[in-house]
Design goal:
The protein is built from three helices and eight strands; from the N terminus they run H-E-E-E-H-E-E-H-E-E-E. The protein is of the alpha+beta class. The chain has a domain of 115 residues: Uncharacterised protein DUF1027 (Hepatocyte Growth Factor). The strands form two sheets. The chain has a six-stranded antiparallel sheet with strand order 1-2-3-6-4-5, with helices on one face. A two-stranded antiparallel ribbon has the order 7-8. The chain is elongated and about 100 Å long. The mean pLDDT is 82.
């Protein structure tokens, strides 16, 4: 795939996302993104641009308490962080790691912004529901057949069969009883 084709796909994706999210400024530091309340906490080197945030935003970011947006090579990158009170909190994605993220993962001296999510929406846990009129499927456990170990099985024979280059399997057959006359 050449660069022109990749750029064409990128342009198509951007055209699809243009009107997906709507940015609406309220006061100096508060704004709405699709009716969802956010507050701008830090705007380093004028890194905040509401229209660009709306273009890059995704529903996945609704579960985070803080969203950091940083600019590199004219691209906005968004990353979410949790408050310690959030049930999804993990120490590596906590608020305390925002500064580490800015120093280690962002371009040196890049412009960035930090936004606080005022109305965190946790993802719903999916549970399997029974459909009306649908009887539940009963799963049976297979019982282990109590058989003596292979060496003591006088009524069975085992043959080694090659399947591939270095693979093999064993096939167990019932022994055919021979009459006294055939021996």
């Amino acid at each position: 795939m050449n660069r022109a084709k990749i750029q064409e796909y990128i342009d198509q994706r951007e055209d699809q996302r243009v009107n997906l999210y709507h940015y609406e400024e309220q006061t100096g530091e508060e704004f709405l993104l699709n009716g969802h309340q956010y507050k701008l906490l830090k705007n380093y080197r004028d890194g905040f641009n509401g229209e660009e945030l709306a273009k890059r935003f995704s529903n996945v970011l609704n579960k985070y308490d803080y969203i950091v947006g940083d600019w590199g090579y004219d691209q906005l990158r968004l990353k979410g962080f949790y408050d310690p009170d959030n049930p999804l909190f993990r120490p590596e994605q906590g608020v305390a790691t925002i500064e580490d993220y800015l120093y280690e993962d962002c371009n040196f001296g890049c412009s960035y912004f930090i936004v606080q999510n005022c109305d965190v929406r946790l993802p719903k846990r999916r549970t399997r529901r029974r459909r009306k009129g649908h009887t539940p499927v009963i799963k049976e456990r297979r019982r282990r057949v109590h058989q003596p170990e292979p060496r003591k099985r006088h009524h069975q024979t085992a043959k080694r069969v090659k399947v591939g280059n270095h693979q093999q399997k064993f096939v167990i057959h019932q022994r055919v009883k021979r009459s006294q006359n055939e021996k």
